[in-house]
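Here comes just one.
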Amino acid sequence: MWKQMLLTEQLEIQMDESNHLFEVRLRRTDQEDTAAVRLSHAELIQILHTLLEINRSFRGDISYFHSAQVMVKPQLDLLR
């Protein structure tokens, strides 16, 4: 059973809890067909992680860890 989660002039988001599906519909105008994307739960999680990474990049946040690189803690000279 589809449940509407968000409805704006351009965007409609629905979910189907029983089948673990997420659907996004995009509209440009009332005359045009709507574009729909239906995602599984795993795909939704991947998109969420990607959007969070984009948000961190836009904000200039520094990651707590880097999986491919070793973080070197800067040495502070507090006696200057």
Observations:
- Residues 2-59 form one domain.
- Residues 41-59 form the longest helix (19 residues).
- The CA atoms of residues 3 and 63 lie 35 Å apart.
